[in-house]
């Protein structure tokens, strides 16, 4: 067994003690469609008592297909946990009324032996900036309080087509602007590992919900790290796909050229299953890629199959700039340990330099602010959202936007408006675009010499609540690990790799694995093997551990 | 912004008028040969008398003629052409002028959160056509940009447009001025052509409270699709909660594709400006990319006018004029504005010419200040990140180029070579449907000049009376050719020809069948009999004729025709008559 015995979080990787179950099992390209394949894939898995890194989605599928459990039981189990933990975590802005009835429908399908979608009975949380037709979608903003979209986002529609149950809408920094979820217009979400800590942001609700097992998996969005940083803070897996891999249709735009919908799961396999479900070209998003979506999950090998050097020959570059000044020593040692772990798995690990690394952050904040100042213009109170009575048009706009937007959003609109103004465009926007091209070239070149790059997902573990609230620059600096990936439009996976300290006060640390454009499959493979061979780390927060 | 209030004016003054035809009649009196095509076609007779088309500009220019010769006007025109694509520029909504407000809208053109634009490839095709037709250089790699400003008719808070890399630039357009104004050929430069989307329209509610307090919202029509139902719930709540309102936003037009065509400041008079706009209208109609209808707002012109003393190199202060709903209004508005500015120059009050936007007041026949600019608006353009760059291949452009129809200028030059007068050339080439009709008739063997005369005469008169377009009539070009050759060959008289034409136009059929139906006498024996009878009945006249009064032949011919009730073949009649009259001398 891998790490099922570990009850407490452990700070360090245990090296060399891997045992592989060499029991032969059938490989199937569509392994998750077949009960036999599932059971041989995870022969040891017992519902909800399996190691934190096993696929919860596959476990659910197996138990439904074998009729071990009913969808309503599974749904009830999650809803119960959601209700008991929500008063502390507050990760949801809205909870669906239809969870149980949708679960009943799945049970009826099973009774009638109808075909089940790959996500049948899987409870999924959806970030509140992703439109859902049956629930309000506010983007975490008061300006859209009670706003109910007329359409499902493409990603949501695809999840539903796969049988998923959308459990609710998760809290976030208003329109994605923030790194702690404290900028939500509605509530503050707590980190399930420590209620005095933030879950990260802006997809903090989605990360916290998966971490606290309030739902099986969730969707977030990543403009500058908004999936990866909260994944790291909450000890879950977070996938930021290649720009254009997932349709943005129905995602409330923050910075259109950087935004991408991403996935959270408690295992790499779950994130992969989710991405496979939502990825692909969409005729409603002109920037979505026509590139074929590989079967990510079929390329993940059972841990039992692994030979002693499953990643033999894989070239891993450690970005040296990400382990320098300003990065917590606990983070640095965790990433170094992860690097050694990868080396033991057969990788050739070396340090790489990325001279443009530090340029990315200011360029990102200029570009994201510019685009957001434009994208948020539509929130004018004319066609939807709250309208404030006013004497004339200009004051109507003023009143609606002054009342509806929070201070961080206003600040970024101001910054973006300023940077795009006549006379400043060249100095800011244009220059930032040049830096972006530089970062793109730099990362592309580095990724031809290396199969993947690794770095921390954040320079520190989860911040204390309020810690960065009055220091926006410090808050922005926290995004330094993630923004370059968005500027380059490439994919990155965050996998929990350790803890900040030994004992119950330890906070999770995330390893960011960066790949070339559309090379998500490689990231999943590396992440999966890393996760399955990671010893003595159990990324289930104490809050729910007894229950899970 | 300004556009919106103008449009609402347009809507209220014109919304009840139908626009059935693209072709109007021939010159009504004197002015504006080309202006008829859209200027007056939709105006009912009653209204026509209310808005005198003639007189004013002439009178006005006369007043200042002496003074005006010391000054030169510099005019540039921005023309917005609404493209007649089946769907809007970035979504799949249709657009039909005059639809119930907010009946053709969707999340994309309403700018709902999360909705994204996807470019309709027809927009590119039409833009390339217009770019080529205007002799422009095309940008094989262009892009869309966002033009940002707030207004209730602009759903996203920005307009998707093109800024620094328009799809086409550096072109020109050739045109011929009407003979009535002295004629002449002109070439005006085209600075650029770019693609953009239209905004919605503000409708000012007539049962408004009259309060200064304004709240903007849109009203949903009951026929909306189910996916708009939830939306309706939200907004009905909003509507119900408002106490004061006097404006409704109609988003049907939001997202409709436009081409903005910017001219060089090469234009020097109201006439040239009106003719330039008319040529743009002809061009887009020839290309089939727009109906070019000014009343519906499918063709809108914003005109920049400045005046400078002749010989001065730098431009005078530029004034923008809006709200001209016809070419004739453009002509008059610009000439008025030129006079106004020239007078101020002349009287040493150049400072009174300020950079501003002026509206053409059709009732008062003058321009009035709409707003003075407090500096330049900053639209904060930046590249539209939701749309990929627009890349055209050489092959694509060449294919479109090869498929272009014969354009107005080429038509005019060809007609000229066919021997038609400039007056005829301008009339025929004004309307692509008329051209097609004329060309088809000529191809079927019709005499060029006669075909032109019939089309410009009786056919045009009929079209005017019935308010039809030439392709709505029952007469085919083949039958026109047949009619012309029947007259030419003496089978029928011109008078009978006219009768037959009117029948063909209204009821259709063939020339041959109508001749038969009319029982026309083409039998020489029968005609001979009638000739002999008439000669016998008029011995006195016969005598006079034979004494040398040969013009009495006409008298005899008339009598025979009268006897045949107009049905005798005139050529045969005259031939036989001459033989008989001269028989014994
Ligand atoms: Zn639409």
Automatic annotation (TrEMBL), chain A:
<dbReference type="GO" id="GO:0030956">
    <property type="term" value="C:glutamyl-tRNA(Gln) amidotransferase complex"/>
</dbReference>
<feature type="active site" description="Charge relay system">
    <location>
        <position position="202"/>
    </location>
</feature>
<feature type="domain" description="Amidase">
    <location>
        <begin position="73"/>
        <end position="523"/>
    </location>
</feature>
<keyword id="KW-0547">Nucleotide-binding</keyword>
<keyword id="KW-0436">Ligase</keyword>
<dbReference type="GO" id="GO:0005524">
    <property type="term" value="F:ATP binding"/>
</dbReference>
<dbReference type="GO" id="GO:0005739">
    <property type="term" value="C:mitochondrion"/>
</dbReference>
<protein>
    <recommendedName>
        <fullName>Glutamyl-tRNA(Gln) amidotransferase subunit A, chloroplastic/mitochondrial</fullName>
        <ecNumber>6.3.5.7</ecNumber>
    </recommendedName>
</protein>
<keyword id="KW-0067">ATP-binding</keyword>
<keyword id="KW-0150">Chloroplast</keyword>
<dbReference type="InterPro" id="IPR036928">
    <property type="entry name" value="AS_sf"/>
</dbReference>
<keyword id="KW-0648">Protein biosynthesis</keyword>
<comment type="function">
    <text>Allows the formation of correctly charged Gln-tRNA(Gln) through the transamidation of misacylated Glu-tRNA(Gln) in chloroplasts and mitochondria. The reaction takes place in the presence of glutamine and ATP through an activated gamma-phospho-Glu-tRNA(Gln).</text>
</comment>
<dbReference type="Pfam" id="PF01425">
    <property type="entry name" value="Amidase"/>
</dbReference>
<dbReference type="GO" id="GO:0070681">
    <property type="term" value="P:glutaminyl-tRNAGln biosynthesis via transamidation"/>
</dbReference>
<keyword id="KW-0934">Plastid</keyword>
<dbReference type="GO" id="GO:0032543">
    <property type="term" value="P:mitochondrial translation"/>
</dbReference>
<feature type="active site" description="Acyl-ester intermediate">
    <location>
        <position position="226"/>
    </location>
</feature>
<dbReference type="GO" id="GO:0050567">
    <property type="term" value="F:glutaminyl-tRNA synthase (glutamine-hydrolyzing) activity"/>
</dbReference>
<keyword id="KW-0496">Mitochondrion</keyword>
<feature type="active site" description="Charge relay system">
    <location>
        <position position="127"/>
    </location>
</feature>
<comment type="subunit">
    <text>Subunit of the heterotrimeric GatCAB amidotransferase (AdT) complex, composed of A, B and C subunits.</text>
</comment>
UniProtKB/TrEMBL annotation, chain B:
<keyword id="KW-0934">Plastid</keyword>
<dbReference type="InterPro" id="IPR042114">
    <property type="entry name" value="GatB_C_1"/>
</dbReference>
<dbReference type="Pfam" id="PF02934">
    <property type="entry name" value="GatB_N"/>
</dbReference>
<dbReference type="GO" id="GO:0005524">
    <property type="term" value="F:ATP binding"/>
</dbReference>
<dbReference type="InterPro" id="IPR006075">
    <property type="entry name" value="Asn/Gln-tRNA_Trfase_suB/E_cat"/>
</dbReference>
<comment type="subunit">
    <text>Heterotrimer of A, B and C subunits.</text>
</comment>
<feature type="domain" description="Asn/Gln amidotransferase">
    <location>
        <begin position="436"/>
        <end position="581"/>
    </location>
</feature>
<comment type="similarity">
    <text>Belongs to the GatB/GatE family. GatB subfamily.</text>
</comment>
<dbReference type="InterPro" id="IPR017958">
    <property type="entry name" value="Gln-tRNA_amidoTrfase_suB_CS"/>
</dbReference>
<keyword id="KW-0067">ATP-binding</keyword>
<dbReference type="GO" id="GO:0005739">
    <property type="term" value="C:mitochondrion"/>
</dbReference>
<dbReference type="InterPro" id="IPR017959">
    <property type="entry name" value="Asn/Gln-tRNA_amidoTrfase_suB/E"/>
</dbReference>
<dbReference type="GO" id="GO:0050567">
    <property type="term" value="F:glutaminyl-tRNA synthase (glutamine-hydrolyzing) activity"/>
</dbReference>
<dbReference type="InterPro" id="IPR004413">
    <property type="entry name" value="GatB"/>
</dbReference>
<keyword id="KW-0150">Chloroplast</keyword>
<dbReference type="GO" id="GO:0032543">
    <property type="term" value="P:mitochondrial translation"/>
</dbReference>
<dbReference type="GO" id="GO:0070681">
    <property type="term" value="P:glutaminyl-tRNAGln biosynthesis via transamidation"/>
</dbReference>
<dbReference type="GO" id="GO:0030956">
    <property type="term" value="C:glutamyl-tRNA(Gln) amidotransferase complex"/>
</dbReference>
<dbReference type="InterPro" id="IPR023168">
    <property type="entry name" value="GatB_Yqey_C_2"/>
</dbReference>
<keyword id="KW-0547">Nucleotide-binding</keyword>
<dbReference type="InterPro" id="IPR018027">
    <property type="entry name" value="Asn/Gln_amidotransferase"/>
</dbReference>
<comment type="function">
    <text>Allows the formation of correctly charged Asn-tRNA(Asn) or Gln-tRNA(Gln) through the transamidation of misacylated Asp-tRNA(Asn) or Glu-tRNA(Gln) in organisms which lack either or both of asparaginyl-tRNA or glutaminyl-tRNA synthetases. The reaction takes place in the presence of glutamine and ATP through an activated phospho-Asp-tRNA(Asn) or phospho-Glu-tRNA(Gln).</text>
</comment>
């Amino acid at each position: 067994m891998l790490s099922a015995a570990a009850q407490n979080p452990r700070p360090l990787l245990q090296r060399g003690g891997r045992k592989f179950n060499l029991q032969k099992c059938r490989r199937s390209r569509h392994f998750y469609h077949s009960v036999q394949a599932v059971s041989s894939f995870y022969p040891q898995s017992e519902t909800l008592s399996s190691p934190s890194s096993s696929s919860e989605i596959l476990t659910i599928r197996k138990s439904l297909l074998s009729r071990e459990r009913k969808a309503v039981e599974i749904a009830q189990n999650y809803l119960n946990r959601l209700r008991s933990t929500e008063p502390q975590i507050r990760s949801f802005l809205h909870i669906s009324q239809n969870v149980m009835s949708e679960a009943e429908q799945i049970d009826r399908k099973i009774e009638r032996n109808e075909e089940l979608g790959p996500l049948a009975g899987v409870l999924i949380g959806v970030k509140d900036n992703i439109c859902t037709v049956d629930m309000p979608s506010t983007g975490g903003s008061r300006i859209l309080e009670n706003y109910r979209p007329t359409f499902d986002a493409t990603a949501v529609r695809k999840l539903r087509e796969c049988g998923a149950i959308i459990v609710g809408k998760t809290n976030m920094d208003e329109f994605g602007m923030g790194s702690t979820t404290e900028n939500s217009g509605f509530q503050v979400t707590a980190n399930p590992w420590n209620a005095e800590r933030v879950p990260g942001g802006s997809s903090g609700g989605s990360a916290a919900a998966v971490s606290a097992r309030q739902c099986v998996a969730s969707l977030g969005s990543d403009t500058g790290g908004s999936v990866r940083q909260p994944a790291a803070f909450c000890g879950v897996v977070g996938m930021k796909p290649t720009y254009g891999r997932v349709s943005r249709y129905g995602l409330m735009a923050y910075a259109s050229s950087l935004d991408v919908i991403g996935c959270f799961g408690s295992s790499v396999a779950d994130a992969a299953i989710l991405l496979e479900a939502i990825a692909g070209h969409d005729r409603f998003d002109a920037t979505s890629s026509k590139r074929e979506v590989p079967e990510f999950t079929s390329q993940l090998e059972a841990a039992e199959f692994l030979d002693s050097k499953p990643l033999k020959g894989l070239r891993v570059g450690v970005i040296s700039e990400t382990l320098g000044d300003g990065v917590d020593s606990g983070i640095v040692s965790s990433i170094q340990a992860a690097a050694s772990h990868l080396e033991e798995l057969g990788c050739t690990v070396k340090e790489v330099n990325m001279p443009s690394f530090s340029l990315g952050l200011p360029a990102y904040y200029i570009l994201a602010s510019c685009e957001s100042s434009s994208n948020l213009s539509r929130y004018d109170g004319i066609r939807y959202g709250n309208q404030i009575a006013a004497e004339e048009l200009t004051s109507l706009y003023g009143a609606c936007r002054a009342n509806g937007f929070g201070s961080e959003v206003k600040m970024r609109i101001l910054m973006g408006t300023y940077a795009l103004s006549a006379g400043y465009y060249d100095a800011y926007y244009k220059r930032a675009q040049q830096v972006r091209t530089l970062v793109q070239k730099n990362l592309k070149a580095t990724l031809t010499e290396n199969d993947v790059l690794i770095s921390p997902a954040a320079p520190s573990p989860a911040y204390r609540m309020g810690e960065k609230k009055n220091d926006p620059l410090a808050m922005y600096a926290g995004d330094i690990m993630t923004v370059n990936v968005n500027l380059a439009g490439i994919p990155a996976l965050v996998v929990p790799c350790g803890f900040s300290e030994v004992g119950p006060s330890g906070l999770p640390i995330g390893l960011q694995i960066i790949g070339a454009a559309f090379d998500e499959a490689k990231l999943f493979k590396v992440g999966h093997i890393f996760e399955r061979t990671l010893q003595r780390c159990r990324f289930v927060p104490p809050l729910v551990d007894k229950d899970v | 912004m300004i556009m919106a209030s103008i449009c609402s004016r347009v809507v209220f003054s014109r919304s009840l008028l139908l626009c059935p035809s693209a072709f109007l009649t021939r010159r009504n009196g004197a002015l504006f040969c080309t202006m008829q095509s859209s200027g007056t076609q939709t105006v009912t007779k009653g209204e026509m008398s209310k808005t005198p088309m003639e007189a004013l500009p002439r009178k006005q220019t006369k007043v200042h003629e002496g003074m005006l010769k010391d000054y030169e006007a510099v005019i540039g025109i921005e023309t917005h052409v609404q493209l007649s694509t089946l769907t809007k520029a970035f979504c799949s909504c249709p657009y039909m002028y005059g639809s119930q407000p907010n009946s053709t809208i969707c999340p994309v053109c309403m700018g709902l959160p999360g909705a994204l634009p996807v470019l309709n490839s027809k927009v590119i095709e039409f833009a390339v056509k217009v770019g080529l037709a205007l002799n422009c250089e095309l940008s094989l790699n262009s892009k869309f940009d966002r033009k940002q400003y707030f207004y209730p008719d602009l759903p996203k808070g920005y307009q998707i447009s093109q800024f620094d890399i328009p799809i086409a630039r550096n072109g020109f357009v050739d045109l011929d001025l009407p003979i009535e104004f002295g004629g002449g050929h002109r070439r005006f430069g085209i600075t650029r052509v770019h693609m953009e989307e239209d905004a919605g329209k503000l409708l000012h509610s007539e049962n408004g409270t009259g309060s200064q307090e304004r709240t903007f919202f849109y009203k949903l029509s009951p026929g909306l699709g189910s996916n708009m139902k939830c939306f309706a719930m939200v907004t009905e709540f909003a509507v119900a909660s408002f106490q004061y309102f006097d404006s409704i936003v109609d988003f049907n037009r939001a997202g409709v594709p436009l081409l903005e065509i910017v001219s060089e400041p090469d234009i020097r008079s109201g006439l040239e400006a009106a003719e330039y706009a008319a040529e743009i209208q002809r061009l887009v109609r020839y290309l089939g990319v727009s109906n070019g209808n000014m009343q519906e707002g499918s063709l809108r012109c914003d005109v920049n006018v400045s005046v400078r003393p002749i010989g001065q190199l730098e431009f005078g202060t530029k004034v923008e004029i809006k709200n001209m709903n016809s070419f004739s209004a453009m002509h008059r508005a610009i000439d008025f504005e030129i006079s106004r500015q020239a007078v101020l120059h002349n009287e040493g009050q150049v400072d009174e010419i300020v950079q501003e936007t002026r509206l053409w007041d059709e009732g008062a026949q003058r321009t009035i200040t709409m707003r003075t600019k407090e500096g330049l608006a900053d639209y904060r353009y930046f590249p539209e990140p939701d749309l990929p760059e627009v890349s055209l291949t050489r092959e694509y452009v060449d294919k479109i180029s090869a498929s272009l129809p014969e354009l107005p200028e080429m038509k005019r030059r060809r007609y000229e070579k066919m021997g038609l007068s400039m007056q005829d050339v301008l009339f025929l080439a004004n309307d692509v449907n008329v051209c097609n009709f004329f060309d088809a008739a000529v191809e079927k063997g019709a005499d060029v000049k006669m075909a032109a005369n019939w089309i410009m005469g009786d056919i045009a008169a009929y079209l005017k009376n019935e308010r039809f377009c030439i392709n709505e009539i029952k007469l085919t070009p083949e039958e026109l050719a047949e009619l012309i050759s029947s007259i030419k060959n003496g089978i029928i008289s011109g008078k009978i020809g006219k009768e037959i034409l009117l029948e063909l136009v209204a009821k259709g059929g063939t020339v041959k069948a109508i001749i038969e139906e009319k029982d026309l006498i083409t039998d020489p024996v029968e005609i001979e009999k009638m000739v002999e009878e008439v000669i016998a009945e008029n011995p006195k006249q016969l005598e006079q004729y034979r004494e040398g009064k040969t013009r009495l032949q006409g008298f005899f011919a008339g009598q025979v025709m009268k006897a045949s009730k107009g049905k005798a073949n005139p050529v045969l009649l005259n031939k036989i008559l001459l033989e008989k009259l001269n028989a014994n001398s």
